[in-house]
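Suppose you are handed only these lines of text.
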Amino acid sequence: MAANKRPESMERITTEALAQSFIHEQVKALQEQIGDKKVLLALSGGVDSSVVAALLIKAVGKQLVCVHVNHGLLRKGEPEQVIKVFRDEMDANLIYVDAVDRFLDKLAGVDDPETKRKIIGKEFIEVFAEEAAKQDGISFLAQGTIYPDIIESDKGVKAHHNVGGLPEGLNFELVEPVKLLYKDEVRVVGKALGLPDNMVFRQPFPGPGLGVRCTGAITRDRLEAVRESDAILREEFAAAGLEGKVWQYFTIVPDYKSTGVIDGKRSWDWPVIIRAVNTRDAMSATIEELPYALLHKITARIVSEVKGVNRVLYDLTPKPTGTIEWE
Ligand code: XMP
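From them, the structure of the protein bound to xanthosine-5'-monophosphate can be written out as follows.
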C-alpha cells in the first residue's frame, strides 16, 4: 500500500504557491491516468468532493461526469449552490438527481437512528449505481478520499461514517487525487482552484445529513423546521463573525412537542435545539460559549420564522457524555 502512504518528504500545503504547484502536478498526473476516457464522481458539495471535481474539470473537462444526488436531507441552498458553481460557473458535465421523494418515502415511519443511516447509505448507493448504468463508457470512479480517511480506515475507526462513499460492486478504476492531503491542505487547494469560501471553509456535515437531526421518524414538516432553523443559525453565526471559528454548529428538532403561547393562543409545537461545539478530532468536544445577546436574537428569529416551533434550547453538553449529533 505504498501509494497510500504520505512520503515523509512531502511538504505541508499551506500557501497559494504550494497549492498551485500541487494542482499543476495533479492535473498532469490525472491527464496521464485518464487519457481520453470518462470519469464518474459523486459530488455532494462538501469540500473534498468539490475539490476533486474542480481538479478533474481542470484536467479532463467534460470527460468528468458529476452526479449530485439530492436526498432531501441537505441544508438549505446546498443543491442550488452545487448547480451554480459547477454547472453554471465551471461548465461541468453535471447530472442533478432529485431523489427527495424516494429517500423520504423509504424513511417514512423509521425511527431507529442506525436503521435510518443504513437506509440512507444503501439508497444513495442504489441511486448512484442507477445513474452510472445510464452512462456509456465510464472507466474511472473519482473519490474525495483524504489522508485521515486512509489512516482511520487502516485503524478500523469510523465504519458508519462513510455514507456517500464508494458504491461497492461498481467495476471502475479509482481516481483519488487528494488522498494524501490533510483537510487543511484540501481547503488551501480548493481556494487556489477558485471555489467559493463558503464551500471551502464549510463545517463538517454528516453523510445522512439533516436526517440525524430530525430525530426519530422523519416527517417532511419537521425536516423543514430543521432546515429553516439551521439556515437562520448559520446566517446569524456568519453575521456575528463566528463562521469558520466554531467547529460545528447546527439545530436539531426532536419528535416531541410542548405547550406554548403564540399570538395569545395555546400552541402545541416542537422545540429547536441549538448545538455549537469545538473539537480537534470529533472524538471529544467542548461547548462554544455563545454570547447571550446572540442566543436571544437567534431564538427570536427561530420562533417567529420557523413554522411549528415554540421554544429554543441550547445544548450545554460536552462530548462525552453527549455525542455531537443527537442520533
Ligand atoms: P458524533 O455524533 O459521533 O459525531 O459525536 C462526530 C462527527 O462525525 C459526524 N458524524 C457523521 N458523519 N456520517 C458522517 O459522514 C455519519 O453517519 C455521521 N455521524 C456523525 C458528526 O457530524 C461529527 O462531525
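What can we learn from it? The pocket of xanthosine-5'-monophosphate is lined by residues 117, 160-161, 163, 204, 206-208, 248, 282, 319, 323-325 (CB under 6 Å). The first strand starts at residue 38 and ends at 42.
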